[in-house]
Design a protein that fits this description.
binds beta-D-galactopyranuronic acid; two-stranded antiparallel ribbon; 27% helix; globular; ten-stranded mixed sheet
């Protein structure tokens, strides 16, 4: 890793397509022994476990198994939320089984008129569940947060001012009107987003004495692990169809939704919104954010082994198209934004495209887009993609596509 001074002098990001280096991607359908994978069985039995293991040891780090006795506590239920449209619940998950930290809080909205268990979108947020809704009786988050005056975060804590500040990213009423529920979780409940030597959050449950080994979980892996624990709760909730859970995330939390979906096949649909480097974008393109930049700016996100590939992307035994391939045959959707060049829209598109052979081998409709589609022209088969106008954000346009995509795949719900 770089010293802060050297980091400040890092090379400018490349935004010039003609400067993208030539590279050869590892083939998701050739085993480590050089054998072509030609059946679904060989994929499931041989190649998929190999790729999963590589992402565990070289990129995100291995996570522990689910804890034995988690405690779920429903802390509030409101049957006439959102003017009567929704049932709203808050549920605390105590990872150790005891009423102590670490604890994550789920905020759940479900369509009030549902007559059977509903499919849901689940997603992590950046500043607390109370920021995604205008309803002021939702619990104000009490955990550490990154500084952000604009969002009403003071001394690393949420204030009443932060209520509703991220609601534009979560069109709850639209989601409810379309027949889906929404499950929200603050990422920092699981692991605070700073480099603390892994002393707090869920890391503290497992790594209290020493920092994780070079192949053990960083913060993205911890967040993904937390999403799986939330799914453990959803499986116990009779109002929710746990076989129809779409995991969705934006940016660093989009990297997280992909890793959660890749590891945990219970996630029925996976969405990456502007996830970029270490998410959907191909590392070998070195366009916009690179491994060099991300590992220095956020040394806690990935496992330490990932540092080996800084400025040596060609040595990586995987690239991010193989992360997408781990989700196959389940539906996956990747979204980019024109002005979000930092996240490398073309690299995000190419990951989907180069994962397609796995989706085809497994008998799905695949992707079907050879070239990048036009702006605001979504492609939706088993794999979905769009690039929309605008900047790094989650917009109504993005959600419109995710809802359409979910309708296609969760049909009859
Ligand atoms: C940036 C980081 C990106 C992305 C983004 C975000 O600073 O470089 O990889 O994760 O933060 O999460 O909003």
């Amino acid at each position: 890793l770089l010293t802060p001074a050297a980091h400040a002098q890092r090379p400018k990001p490349n935004y010039d397509e003609s400067q993208v280096p030539e590279f050869k991607l590892p083939d998701p359908l050739v085993t480590s022994k050089g054998k072509k994978v030609d059946s679904a069985e060989e994929w499931q039995q041989v190649r998929r476990p190999e790729i999963l293991e590589l992402f565990e040891t070289e990129v995100y780090g291995k996570s522990p198994a689910a804890p034995q006795d988690m405690l779920f506590e429903v802390t509030s239920v409101k049957n006439d939320a959102l003017g009567g449209k929704a049932i709203r619940k808050e549920v605390s998950v105590y990872f150790s089984g005891k009423k102590e930290e670490p604890r994550m809080d789920l905020l759940i909205y479900l369509p009030a008129k549902a007559t059977k268990p509903v499919p849901v979108f689940m997603g992590l947020n950046f500043y607390g569940n109370h920021t995604i809704t205008d309803e002021t009786d939702v619990k104000l988050n009490d955990h550490w947060m990154r500084a952000n005056k604009e969002k009403g975060i003071v001394d690393h804590k949420a204030t009443a001012d932060s209520r509703g500040k991220s609601s534009s990213r979560w069109p709850i009423e639209k989601i409810i009107d379309r027949g889906y529920g929404l499950v929200a979780i603050y990422c920092g409940d699981i692991d605070p987003d700073y480099d603390d030597g892994f002393k707090n959050g869920v890391h503290a449950l497992y790594n209290s004495k020493q920092k994780p080994a070079p192949d053990e979980w960083g913060t993205i892996a911890a967040w993904a692990w937390g999403l799986s624990r939330a799914l453990d709760y959803l499986e116990t909730d009779k109002q929710i169809d746990a076989n129809k859970v779409a995991v969705m995330g934006h940016s660093r939390l989009g990297k997280t939704s992909l890793w959660a979906g890749a590891q945990d096949p219970r996630f029925a649909l996976v969405i990456s919104n502007d996830s970029g480097c270490g998410g959907a974008a191909l590392s070998r393109r070195r366009f916009g954010e690179t491994l060099h930049v991300i590992n220095n700016a956020f040394p806690h996100w990935f496992c330490d082994n990932f540092n080996k590939y800084i400025d040596k992307e060609n040595d990586l035994p995987v690239d991010q198209h193989m992360l997408i391939s781990l989700i196959a045959p389940r539906p996956v959707y990747v979204a980019s934004a024109v002005e979000d060049r930092w996240a490398d829209p073309k690299g995000e598109f190419l990951s989907v495209k180069y994962a397609e052979p796995v989706y085809k081998l497994l008998g799905t409709s695949g992707f079907g887009a050879d070239k990048m589609p036009g702006i605001n022209e979504p492609v939706q088969k088993q794999m979905g993609y769009h690039i929309r106008t605008g900047k790094h954000d989650v917009t109504d346009f993005d959600w419109e596509q995710y809802l359409n995509f979910a309708d296609q795949h969760f049909q009859g719900s």
